[in-house]
């Protein structure tokens, strides 16, 4: 096995990363890459490896997933999480799941169980479980279920936003002169430096050339209890399909940003479909992001569209395997890490939009070739 | 307004309809069409009219939606329901929702509220709510929420399947000679005449030429609590997009059948995309159903694929509006009703696969042109 054909890439959210916090985000992306690469070196599957990478991201308090998840309006943690296996094309997801430290491991379990075939009487196994039913499934599989999970950071963010929200609501019901300071009712959450990170994710290639993708999110702050976000939705948060022929490359993609916009454009699948049938990864990612996300007819009434995509493409040719990575985002920043099996440590960095352009209206693009 | 340009089509599930029960299914499809047409004649929107049609189907005890919903393994009703508006492209859905008589009205409410724009602080409104959070939303909107909803029919079906399931489970854990009669552990649920109907749905065209689609389901019998089915999933259960140019026809489609297969193929969106960019409705529906459902790489390990689609296409040309209807199914049967504004009463019928072909492997196709 050529170790260089192993590949992992992760991201800690497309959003707004405060410059002061960069070292924290980079450290967690590095740890996630190292964890996944250790498994890949042991010939573990792509699906297991992306799950492990996302579990590391979930365990970090600085990300909006698992432990650091944003709270609902009622102050609870409700997580969305999903995996897709490029080899079997099975998808597993949980939504609005409370009390579980690593929702991604539950999504992985649901995808793995589908390999066992139907249940007695030909009943098809579920691929997506939500709410209390998802929690019951966790208990039956011996996942540790606690009454609630709150991190200090998430609780502080919750209190800050709840206060802002109450002031904003007040301003809608009160006469103008009684309204609080307009700074407190800003309608542009993207400007709240450091407070907004979205869905995290990972994509990888294992020793057999299989691809997989995984994503996890605590959802938007002060979300409605029971709100399902893109990380739980087929085609929105993650997508993976192995290479099946010379003209159909392997692809794995994960998305992040404003949830409802990722859902309405089924962004992970839409980008994957475009990448898969094109020879040019970066070119196809740029054009599909521009036309089918920023220019989408589904978002025509939305002024600013916040999204990010991290994608890999595999190509088998006579000289061996080739893995290409590309990313794009219209959010102010996106924290990314990646490495192949020949590297000792991952490359980690925060990609930022140019100061001269407007987040939500412009995008930036980057890429890397490993072979 | 030319009344003939109004159009409604409904279906009471793609599954296995016992011949003895045909009059009951036809009567409920007729009532659903009449209800929707009455609203369309009052110049109500396509979205309101499909919602009303599906509410009639939900109220009937013979359908697997609303009142007649299949029960979960624990004996509870948990409904999935969604609407899509071809004009605004907004989608609203509820999943794993208990205690609400008409889940479709809640999905409709979620789609309607999106027209009001973002909440204070730029928070995007949710499009999909599940479980207890969805139930809390219903309470806050004055929907009547009961502790549980059980119909006599559903309870009888539940007991029958639960007994069969327990016998089947027993047969897996017991030595072969102790296994119960193999008739009781049949692995082919599609053969259980009259006991299996899936997701119901409606598509329509209003006086402005807008299209809309709606679907609702109680899910598979003995489903895992919290299991999300296609009727709650964007792109799987329903899809609608207005005509935007001569080459982009208006289309609305609803699907039914084995839930996980409809999800994995995002069948409503996949069919709509194909129909929308083709001049030939029936031809494109047949080829996309054959290639991307029965021949889907996502279902390559599935022996039999049970699905059904009901779709309309609108075309504006110089001589007025034209509406075309088509349906296809690989299930044994599908009960359908349709009418245009010039008809006094709807056409209702049960479409059946030829006795000579195998359900899940072959399909039948039908259509109607109204202009």
UniProtKB/TrEMBL annotation, chains A, B:
GO CC annotation, single: cytoplasm
Superkingdom per UniProt: Eukaryota
GO BP annotations listed: protein maturation
InterPro entries named among the record's database cross-references: Ntn_hydrolases_N, Peptidase_T2, Taspase1
Residue ranges the record marks as coiled coil: none
TM ranges: none
PANTHER family per the UniProt record, alphabetical: L-ASPARAGINASE (PTHR10188), THREONINE ASPARTASE 1 (PTHR10188:SF8)
Family statement: Belongs to the Ntn-hydrolase family.
Name of this chain's protein: Threonine aspartase 1
Native source species: Elysia crispata
């Amino acid at each position: 096995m050529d170790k260089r054909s192993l590949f992992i890439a992760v991201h800690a959210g497309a959003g707004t990363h405060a410059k002061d916090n960069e070292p924290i985000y980079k450290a967690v992306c590095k740890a996630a890459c190292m964890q996944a690469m250790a498994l890949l070196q042991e010939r573990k599957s792509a699906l297991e490896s992306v799950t492990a990478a996302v579990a590391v991201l979930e365990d970090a308090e600085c990300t909006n997933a698992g432990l650091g998840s944003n709270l609902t309006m009622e102050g609870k943690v409700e997580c969305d999480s999903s995996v897709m296996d490029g080899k079997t094309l099975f998808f597993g997801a949980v939504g609005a799941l409370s009390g579980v430290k690593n929702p991604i491991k539950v999504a992985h379990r649901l995808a793995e169980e589908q390999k066992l075939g139907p249940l007695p009487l030909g009943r098809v196994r579920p691929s997506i479980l939500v709410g209390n039913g998802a929690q019951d499934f966790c208990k039956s599989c011996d996942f540790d279920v606690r009454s609630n999970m709150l991190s200090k950071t998430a609780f502080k963010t919750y209190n800050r936003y709840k206060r802002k929200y109450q002031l904003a609501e007040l301003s809608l019901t009160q006469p103008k002169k009684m309204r609080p300071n307009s700074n407190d009712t800003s309608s542009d959450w993207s400007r709240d430096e450091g407070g907004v990170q979205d869905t995290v994710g990972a994509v990888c290639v294992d020793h057999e050339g299989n691809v997989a993708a995984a994503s996890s999110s605590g959802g938007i702050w002060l979300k409605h209890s029971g709100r399902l976000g893109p990380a739980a939705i087929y085609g929105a948060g993650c997508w993976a399909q192995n290479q099946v022929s010379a003209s159909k490359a392997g692809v794995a993609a994960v998305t992040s940003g404003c949830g409802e916009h990722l859902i309405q454009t089924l962004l992970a699948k839409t980008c994957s479909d475009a990448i898969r049938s094109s020879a040019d990864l970066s070119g196809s990612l740029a054009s599909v992001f521009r036309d089918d996300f920023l220019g989408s007819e589904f978002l025509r009434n939305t002024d600013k569209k916040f999204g990010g995509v991290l994608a890999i493409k595999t190509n088998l040719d006579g000289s061996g395997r080739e893995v290409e990575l590309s990313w794009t985002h219209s959010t102010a920043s996106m924290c990314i890490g990646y490495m192949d099996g020949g590297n000792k440590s991952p490359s980690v960095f925060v990609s930022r939009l140019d100061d001269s352009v407007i987040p939500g209206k412009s995008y930036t693009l980057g890429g890397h070739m490993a072979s």
